[in-house]
Description:
With 271 residues, the protein is mainly α. Helix content is 71%, strand content 1%. The longest helix is centred in the last third of the chain and has 51 residues, at 156-206. The chain starts with a helix and ends in a 7-residue tail after the last helix.
Amino acid sequence: xxxxxxxxxxxxxxxxxxxxxxxxxxxxxxxxxxxxxxxxxxxxxxxxxxxxxxxxxxxxxxxxxxxxxxxxxxxxxxxxxxxxxxxxxxxxxxxxxxxxxxxxxxxxxxxxxxxxxxxxxxxxxxxxxxxxxxxxxxxxxxxxxxxxxxxxxxxxxxxxxxxxxxxxxxxxxxxxxxxxxxxxxxxxxxxxxxxxxxxxxxxxxxxxxxxxxxxxxxxxxxxxxxxxxxxxxxxxxxxxxxxxxxxxxxxxxxxxxxxxxxxxxxxxxxx
Length: 271
């Protein structure tokens, strides 16, 4: 019985150790360990002063779920074929037959979503979840950071040096956080606008099944055409905003890996 309990305990210990080894050094673990050293040095008030290294903003939480509806097709191929069949065949707009016009517009909207937006959302998520072991930067060595972290010894003088440079780090962080929060707020508003426009177009096309006369179908076409063009334009604006957000996150990650190296002692000073 004792042997069985010992084996069970050993298995759990190895499992926890394996998970910790896999996770490696994280930005949170660097900050947590520094707080412990600061407290041991009498700097109790320093708790949370380096939290800006853990994540850029609370607005980064659940972003993937927020973006999820915009990486799906606006209209799948089956539904698209049904809609195209119901559109008036003999009518043209700007020299293009109505079904052809809509087909091209829907393909553009779908392409924006499943290609550019999807790719940018993936890259943004990668930057948000980035940890030191993932970083690939010139002059950066994760193994060195890990070694310094593991062998990190209590140095009261170093704690004080870092403490005196928090404001310098935080100034850079605040600039990036302001940019990021502004971009996410703009993206959120744009997502709501696009959702409203999509609902409007779907409502218009829902009327096609009842429309029998060509004139009625053309009225539906005229009603939905401006909104469809606006969806495409707003998605282009969204792509631009996502590019800016990605750039901000990359800059933040470049800074915080340097901050992490400085805090554990890999770097003796900040650039």
